[in-house]
Amino acid sequence: MNEGKLANRGSYFYAMVAAVLVLLAGPVVFGFDNYFLHICITIAFNVMLAVSMWLIWTLGLVSFAHAGFMGIGAYTAALLFLNFGWPLWFTLIAAGIVSGIFALVLAVPLMRTTAVYFFMASWAVGEVIKRIFAHFRNTFGGWDGLFNIRPPVLHLGEYTLNFSSRLNYYYLALAGCLLVVFFVNRIHSCRIGKTYWSIYDNETLAQHVGINTRGNKIAAFAIACAIAGMTGALYAHYHTYINPKSFDIWQSEFVLIYMIVGGLNTIVGPIAGAIVLTVLDELLRPTEYYRVIIFGVIVILSVLLFPGGLEALASRVRKAFGRRRHETPKEGEAK
Amino acid sequence: MDIGLFTQTALTAVTLGLMYALIAIGLTLIFGVMRIVQYAHGELYMLGAYALYYATTQLGIPYWFSVILSAAALFVVGAVLQVVLFRPLIGKNMLYSLAVSMGLIFIISSGGLLMFGTVVRGIPSPFDGGITMLGALLTYERLTISLISGALIIGLWQFLAHTKMGMSLRAVSEDAEVASLQGVNTKRTHWIAFGLGSALAAIAGCLMGTLLSIVPTMGFGATMKAFMIVIMGGLGSIPGALIGAMILGVIDSFGTTLLNADIAYIIGFSVIFITLVIRPTGLFGQRWDG
Asked: ipTM greater than 0.90, yes or no?
């Protein structure tokens, strides 16, 4: 599925280092304004969601509950902050743990279903989570949501870092995003990742080889949902305001679209999809009423014209120009 | 809860259930025959309602004739969508058809907002009056709507059971390869199934539009209901869709009357979740490895 990656690991490593350096130095060197930083932070959140969703996908599952678990994380963080004054550092961990535990408990019955039934069952889970936030007005603030979830202030001796500045929050979000990408990439490239793909390819066969498919699925689901929950905590402290609408089915669907447009076979896919589509959505802002329509057209066209997604674009271009020397082995298109 | 309120709620449950069934059966037909996720089904239901609105109020075409026109128009729209967008995706992972139909939702619903405006509109109903029984009022409108939905469902059942076309639809949904070996034109069955499903959604939109009111954003709610029903009943199963629709009708009607809409949703989704946990392929479902 991804033999091509191993061939030139060195150049990938340098490209990664260069990208990280650009991301770190970019805002200072080019002097990003607040609007641009906001887009970058949004991209970071979307990449975290897309990459964690992709982790579930490597087992052949598509979850519609992802935004719901992000919501559990966000509400955990918000309630801990508002009631007990916990700063982000602790609410982040608590959010991960709480949504991870919820995911673990729910995954046990969820994993009885497969394919399309799974994503409908997960849809039910996501929708119930959202409606519970909306219904219990006293605890969760109902449809109005929760306000005043302030970003943290870090005291380092005589030096204080205030994360209500966009630039500082950008670095925080970037750090979170890079950690998540690194973590998921590690899972993906070690033995566990191979186990996941074997379940994706043929679950029955994987079972016969002695892989505990059910246990692996539950574990992967819980890990991905914990990541989503932590993203939720970061989201809540960034926007300082959350309501159930931020975590509804559309949020999950957008993450799915990032994944499909980006490509499903390597981790580059969801990252590329999240970046390109978030930027595209912002670029379409001047078209006002036509924005959603154009977005829809682009999604349809990219699915029909580039079935391998953005990640396969490089090899397509290479093929078009006939440079067969460097051609990577053909990526298997998702079945 | 006194007897009058109870009967009234029960009657609403049946009407709602039959209406839901009409949308859901169209969806399950598309699902069963093509094995693709048609997520924009509710948008076609919305278009059907608007077609009726413009035909009756702007062009002055009589109500029942407009319903037929709307169904025919949406049959064509569905068939064209299948040929242009969904045909290349058959046999691929369902994620692709999901993405394409999500794109369709964006295009149709915000295109609808641009074309039809954000105003809530009502379609004038050709009926008035009603009968009172057991302290509940049953309007002739609701009675006719329920009868029409029931008749359509029975008609579709007969069509699938006895006509040559219906049998080939069933054959394709059973096993497309074997069906094409037996000389069934699978491509044709695909667009016919998609068109039929869309036409059923359009009729449901027309009937519901008369009963309630229409807005360009009503499509997604219908998609949601249809998916809940189809999954609960099992993909590709028409009796399953009927029973699922009735269960959801009862939950929605009683839940909304006794408690509130949010709780009705929570109960509805919990029932689906529990159904799927107990029977992972729905009540009457076929296995579906995508």
From this structure: no
